[in-house]
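Cross-posting from the modeling subforum.

Setting up a comparison between two proteins and wanted a second pair of eyes on the formatting. Protein 1 (sequence, then structure tokens):
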Amino acid sequence: MYFIHSKIRSLFILLISMILFLSCSNDDDEDLNNETCEICCTDTGIPDGQSIIRTIDFDHFVSASDNDLVNNFYFLEGAENATISQVNSGGITGGGLVPPNELNWRNEAIVHCLLYENRIGSMIETSISFKYDEELINPNQNERTVAIFLDNGVSNRDIGFYITKGDQITVSSYNYGQSTAISLETDHWYNFVTQYTSIGGNFNDEVLAKAEVFDLGTDGTESPSSIGTHTASIFDSELVASTTFQVDVTGTTWGGSELLDDFVFNGIKRSRD
């Protein structure tokens, strides 16, 4: 009798494991809440609906299958050229990310496993640091030094913040696209900080977006010094109506990034179902 019960229990555990595997492997569901499973994300211990500041320094590396990159990010489906990888040295406090030469826009970004919950008046702040090298820039390609996207799952209604070839900050959305000139120095670390707030306003369509670059010096540990800011007032009801945002991050060597480091997620947390 004990043998029969053990056999049944083993079959039950196997069945549950198969169900969990299939739910994590479903690439056909385009709902942001179902693109991946929470098991893919290092546990924060913070319940959904609460604010969280989460820094990923890319210093944790045990193996190719256990490191800060694979534990906290995944690639979008079809990212054939997404060869970004984690290394153990060269970063601000240890490890960092080596970006690929080029990317197919945001289709080959790395995607953070948590979502932001979008609420009126609540600011979402995302940042990534990068080491700049002007000699890496390919003048024949329009690659971006670094970029952060907030994706609400509505086609062409996301919002992007990026630096192009080290000389301008751009904020871009469905009905907005403007830039501010900046000047970066080779071998300096910079922190690219982006902010998004749904204001609402009289017609429930007002958004405030801001991107700022801070110089961190040659070792990445100097006191941050702002070298440029772009602030945008955007009117887009689809953005304001968004319940959640997915965070996509990119960077390229041909855009001038030698390394990426210190990703920060700061806002109201929402896990993927």
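Protein 2 (same layout):
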Amino acid sequence: MRQQVTEVATTNHPLRSPVHITGSAPLSHPIALQLAPTFAEQRQFRESYIATAIRLSGAPPAGAPEPAALLLNLESRLTSLWRVPWDNHNKETLWRLTVQGLSGGGGHDICPRGPCRCGWQCPLQISPVERALALRSHAFWHCPVAQAVISQILLALPPNTTLCGMHVWLLLPPLPPPALHADIWAFVSMVALRAMDFGRRHLWALQPSSSSPPVDAVTQASRRASSMFWMLLQDFVTLNSPPDSWASSGHSHPFLHLSPRHIGSPLPAVLSLNLPPSVTLPASLF
């Protein structure tokens, strides 16, 4: 019997900083034996993550797969995203979120004691597990800073598109192809979570105490998170190294699209940022 070894975290905590390991290894292989408990714990955390995403959405979207299928899809998308040639620091928010290992964002042993700097307070009379889930749900969906990023996503989608937590957390396109390419949507969702985390940290820097924050602090952090979302996408565009699977996306695909070169050119298509008309990239975030 063989076990497919794809990715695992090994830096500060074996679940929180993924390292990609390719190939298959027999179960008797020392690495596979050593990592087997980590993979099992990792999967348990991701099952909890999926359950939280479903609860966050109120009800699964029509046609959503069963939890077991959602887990397989999530793990497949995570493996594909880890292979994308881009700064791995921008991928870690998603990875750590799936295993409850994000500092200050609902980590199972590193939850903040005070309220969010937006003014929200976690209920006190709940278990540590429920507290972690509530913190994650707030920081990466309900918080005004997170919702600012969601608003940017909706600007790029057709009017009246329904977007719920499962679509972003579980990398599930809210629209079928060709409206949204599944691999591009997974990348966009990963970037959105990174931007939310950036905005959340910026809010805490602006408002270090737990007193009610001034409105302009929440507004400023929301704007920074919104700008960060598009600037991260632009950063990837400058590399012009889209995965091969993106080639099947349309030339007018939301967020990111491939623009063909002139007929007869031996060069590949150019990756471009598809900004909504109302969005302008800032010169700098700072």
